[in-house]
Amino acid sequence: MTAELVRGQNHPLSQTRLEIRVSAGKPIVAGATLSDEHGTVHGVEWVAHPGAPTLPGLEVSRQAAADHRLAVDLDAMPDSVHRISVLLALPTGVGGPASFGAVAAPFVAVTGLDGTEVASYTITGLEAESSVVALELYRRQGAWKVRAIGQGYAGGLAELLADQGLAEAQQLASGINEAVTQGMARSVAAPPPRTADADRSRQTASPAVGPDQSGSSYGGTSPQTGASYGGASPQTGQAPLPSTPQTGQTPLPDTPQPTSFTGGPDSADSSSVTQSAAPGSGGPVDYSHPRRRNAAPPPPPPAAPPARPGQPATPVAGDASGWSMDERLYNQVWGMFEDLARTAASYRSAVDFADSRMEKELDQVLSDPRARIGGQGDAAREAAQTKRAQLIDQARQSLERDVAQLTAEADVVEPALPAPYARWDNPVWHAYRVPMEMPMAVRLGELHLPECAELRIPMLVRLPLERGLWIDSGRTGSTDGTFTDSHDRRRLGMETAVAHAARLLAVHPAGEFTVHVIDPAGSGAQALAPLVQTGVLATPPAHGAAGVTEVLARLTQRVDLVQMAVRGGASDALPPGFDTSQQLLMVNDFPHGFDDRAVNQLRYLADEGPAVGVHLMMVADREDASAYGPLLDPLWRSLLRLTPVADDHLADPWVGHCWTYEPPLVPPGSQVLPQVLTQVAAARRDLNR
Prior knowledge:
Blueprint: E1 3-5, E2 10-12, E3 17-35, E4 47-48, E5 54-55, E6 58-59, E7 65-73, E8 83-89, E9 107-111, E10 117-122, E11 131-140, E12 143-153, H1 156-163, H2 169-185, H3 325-366, H4 376-416, E13 441-448, E14 457-462, E15 468-472, H5 486-507, E16 513-518, H6 525-534, H7 544-567, E17 582-590, H8 596-608, E18 614-620, H9 633-638, E19 639-642, E20 647-651, E21 658-662, H10 672-688
Parallel strand pairs: 1-10, 15-18, 15-19, 16-17, 17-18
Antiparallel strand pairs: 2-12, 3-4, 3-7, 3-8, 3-9, 5-6, 6-7, 8-11, 9-10, 11-12, 13-14, 13-21, 20-21
Helix pairs in contact: 1-2, 3-4, 5-6, 5-10, 7-8
C-alpha cells in the first residue's frame, strides 16, 4: 500500500533498487546529492545533475523536463553515503516560471521495480522558492528509509547546495544551468499532449528481462508497442520532457490550423497572434470553424484482428487516434520514436547494471586475501563474467524483439506516409499535387540509434515552425568516418537548406508560403538553381551588403506591422495587398556581408518572427562568427541545429539519447525536386492571375 507522506514524515524502504518519479507540469531540473551522516556534501563529485547524471548507484535525467525518473540502487551506494537528497529546481534563462509558486505543486513518488508505489509526496506551500529538496533517502540502523522534506530556497540551486555544505555551490549551480540550457538547445521538440482517447493502442509483449538503471522505468513493457523499457508504463500521451522552449506545444489534436500569419498551434507567446482551441476561448483572433467539433477525436479505424496471446499484433498504418489519417500517422510516428527511445534506454541500463554488478562482485572477492589463494579468485571471476554475459544476453534478446516489432511497423508506416512526412524517394511524390490545406507537420530528416541503425524514425516537426533552422556548414564529420573540406561542407549545407525550403514550399497551399534568399557573395548559386530556375522565389537572391540591408529591413518592418496590428486588435487594418503568407528567410554564408545592424535584425527575426509567420533558416559555421563574441549565442540557441551529413547531435525529449540525424536529401540523379517545384510555381502563377 502506498504511503502518502506529509512534510517531515518518514517511511521504511523494503527494496534497494528503486525509481523516483517526479511530475511538475512544467520543465524543471532534477538532481540528487550524496552526503554523509551529518548531511554534508563533500564535493561536486557527490552531486548528480544534468551535466554529470551518473554516480555509483544513482542516475538522474539529463535535461529539464516536466516528468522525471531517477534510478537508485541503494546496494551500490558507497559506505560513506548516508543520505540521498532529491533536488528540484526551475531552469534559469529560458523564459520559464521564476518560482514554484507559479507552477502546480510538484509530485514525487518512490516506486519499486514493478512500478508499485512505495511512498509519495506532494510538495505544497511553495511560493518564492526556485529550488527545493523534495525528499531524502537515508540510512538508519542498517536500513534505508525515505523522508518527505519539502525545504525550498528562494536563492535557487546555489543557496540549496551551499546549505548542504558544498564549497563550490555557486560554480556548480552555474554549470548545471549551462548544461540544462545546452540540452534544451539540442533537443527535438516533443509532440503536443494528447487526451487519453488519443493514445495509441498496441499489442503488449512479454516483460523485459533485466534491471534498468537509466532514469527510464524498470522491467515491464510499453503500452505502445510492447517495447521493453522497464516497469510501469509511462504517461505516453503527454510530452514528458519538453526540453526546449519550442516544446511548449499546447494545442490538442482538435486545435484548428491557422490560415494566415499566426504563431501556429505550437506558439507559446500569448502576446503574438494566437488561435483558440474552441470558439470563444478569448484569443485575439479566433480561427475555429463554426462546424468544427471540439471534442475528443474519434478512435482509429478497426485494426487487424488481435494476435494470439504471446504473439505481437500485426502492424497497421494509422493505428493512433486523430481527426484525420495524417494526424493518426503523425501520432503513430511519435509513438514509435518514444518506444524506441525507452527500449534502448532499458537495454543500455541493463548493460550498465551488469557491468557494475560484475565489478562489485569482483571487488568483494578480491578484498578478501584468502580468496586470492588457489583457484577461488579465478572461479569467482569466471562466475561473475558468466553472470554478466547472461544478463546482457537477456537484455539483447528483449531489445531485438522490440526492434523487430518496431521495424515491422516502420515497414508498414513508411509507404503510407503523405508527402509532407515522406522521404524524397517515396512514390507519393510522383502523384504530387499542390495541396489545398497546410499539413500539421513536415519531415526534416530521420533519426536512428547505434543499437539498431537499420531502424529509421521520421523526424516530424509541427507547422508552422515555431523555431528557426540552423544548417551547420561547420566542421561536422559524418558518422561513417568521412570528412569533407570547407568547400564541400558549405555546398552540402546549402543543398540541404534548399531541400528543406523546397519541401516547405511543396506542402503549403499555393501562395501560403514565400521564400526569400540572402546570398551576399553569390556562393550558393549552384545549390539555389532549383529554386531560381523554377521561379518559386519571391524575388531573386539578394547579393552584397545592399541586398542584405533591403531584405532584412523589409522583413523586420513586416514583423513590426503584424505585431502592432494584432496587439492593437486591428488585424484587418493592415495595408492593402499585404502578403499574409508564411515567410521563410534563407541566409547563406553568414556572417559574411553582415554588419552589426544586420546581425541585430537577424536576432530580432529569430526571436519575434515565428510568432507572426516569419521564419529563419541559416546556413552557417558558428566558428566563422566567433568574432562577434557571445552576442550571437542567443541566436544560435534559438535555432534548431541540423547537419548536412549524418551526425549524432540531437536528443530525444524523454530519456535524452543522442540520436544520429540523417538529412532529407534528394537521391542523386532524381528529378523529383524540379518537378515538384515546377508545379508549385505554376500554382502560384494561376493564383495571381
